[in-house]
Design brief:
By secondary structure, the chain is mainly α. The protein is built from 21 helices and no strands.
């Protein structure tokens, strides 16, 4: 029951003609939607799906079922025109699928005929006439391989999950988590119906990535216990499916949890376990970064430099990902973010400042807003720390104010860095009243995080 999620390969490889017609239908939807003054999100809500689904349908990467197109036609004010085009497309699609089935049937019959004509004489004399071949066996085999999923649905679910992972850095956490849970419920329904063994594994793998994403968002919100439950569920899926990448990222999350909660001594062992699970993937670089951050906080300066050097060399061995904004892939641009934290902690101010400014430049959209607000927040707090060390309280206060103004925050990460900034402040300016311009906003941010995040822990 693929429903609105049916993808583009439900009947094998799609013809160029059909692919082009699908894209044109998607473009037509976009035109009607825009003319109606609707955003993709508004249309998604009106058609009982999510924005990612609308994006893929408009891009010709997904089909949409009859219910979707009827609702879209109504809400876009197409007066039946949009739905009529969908019906035309369906007619072409069904004709294509009929030809594919007929071709496959002819090939199967030809193969059976060849087998029949090459049968030995001794067996020919006792062969059952063709019309008496037991069709029950064919039916049993068909039922064994019956599926409500199909490659198109699997492909679309991978698209949807990756899209959500790419939105982690900037999207409203509650909305992101809601969408991820909706996809999980949909996948759960597919797992309860007929599907092949390969499809069953793929559905579990997609669920594993969604659970990892949900766990990260929950931890950002200060919901530590919920985040751990999501991480543990992803770990079990990784073990059950033999997916080293998912297993490695669950260890990365554990290392992150340990780092931000002050369990510094356990970070290196968790990172090593994650690297062992997926030694040839880019998550190894992220795990190295967590180890370096822990070593920096324990004052192990030489270890920090060694890990950073090893991590950068490891990063160079990996190809640049096609979707670097995906939270679960690592690319060179993210290395500035990791190095910035470490150099700040070991007191190499200029290097920390250089990396912080690079992080801000990478994070800045054309309109001046941040596409990676959590990283930008940490970069600004790094610049606040550097300003403190240069004796410039006013600049430090301004960097702190701007950093804390972001609505997208990672609770435990922010509290950890805020504590480090305040400790530096008390060391350098123990009784300076001007320090209140920094300590008061930090205290207010902690209170808001407690109320909005950890205070809602379930």
């Amino acid at each position: 029951m693929p429903g609105i999620l049916e993808g583009v390969n439900g009947m094998g490889r799609e013809s160029e003609e059909l692919s082009e017609k699908r894209k044109l239908l998607g473009k037509l939807l976009a035109v009607y939607r825009t003319a109606a003054g609707l955003t993709q999100l508004q249309l998604a809500q009106a058609t009982f799906c999510d924005r990612t689904t609308v994006t893929h349908i408009e891009g010709g990467r997904a089909r949409g079922d009859e219910k979707f197109w009827k609702a879209a036609d109504s809400h876009c004010g197409a007066d039946g025109g949009l739905f009529a085009e969908f019906r035309k497309f369906e007619a072409v699609k069904q004709d294509h699928e009929t030809r594919v089935r007929e071709t496959a049937l002819l090939e199967a019959r030809a193969k059976a005929e060849r087998l029949h004509t090459t049968t030995s004489p001794a067996r020919v004399t006792t062969e059952v006439p063709k019309q008496a071949i037991p069709q029950e066996t064919v039916e049993h085999v068909r039922r064994l391989y019956r599926t409500d999923v199909g490659p198109g649905t699997i492909e679309h679910l991978h698209f949807a999950a990756e899209e959500l992972c790419c939105e982690y850095a900037w999207r409203d956490p509650d909305e992101l988590k809601t969408d991820a849970h909706q996809w999980l419920r949909y996948i759960s329904g597919l797992l309860g119906g007929p599907c092949t063994l390969k499809e069953h594994r793929e559905l579990l793998v997609i669920s594993g990535w969604l659970l990892l994403l949900i766990g990260c968002v929950e931890y950002d919100q200060g919901r530590k216990h919920q985040a751990e439950h999501s991480r543990a569920a992803a770990f079990r899926i990784g073990k059950d499916t033999g997916h080293g990448g998912i297993i490695a990222w669950t260890f990365e999350m554990s290392a992150w949890f340990a780092l931000t909660q002050g369990n510094l001594g356990s970070v290196a062992a968790l990172a090593a376990a994650g690297s062992e699970a997926a030694p040839n993937t880019s998550v190894v670089v992220q795990l190295a970064a967590q180890s370096a951050k822990a070593a920096a906080r324990m004052g192990q300066r030489e270890t920090v430099h060694r890990i950073l050097d090893e991590g950068y060399r490891s990063l160079e061995r990996h190809d640049r990902p096609s979707r670097p904004e995906n939270h679960f892939v690592i690319d060179p641009q993210k290395w500035d973010f990791y190095a910035m934290d470490c150099y700040r902690l070991v007191g190499q101010n200029q290097r920390a400042v250089n990396h912080a400014r690079e992080v801000l430049a990478i994070s800045r959209r054309a309109d001046g807003s941040d596409k990676s607000p959590m990283r930008a927040t940490e970069a600004r707090l790094t610049l606040a720390m550097a300003s403190l060390r240069q004796g410039d309280l006013d600049s430090a206060a301004e960097w702190t104010r701007v950093a804390l103004s972001s609505s997208r925050k990672s609770a435990e990460q922010l509290v950890m860095i805020a504590d480090e900034l305040e400790e530096e402040l008390h060391t350098l300016f123990p009784k300076d009243p001007a320090a209140l311009a920094i300590t008061e906003p930090l205290a207010q941010a902690r209170l808001e995080l407690k109320v909005n995040g950890a205070g809602h822990e379930g």
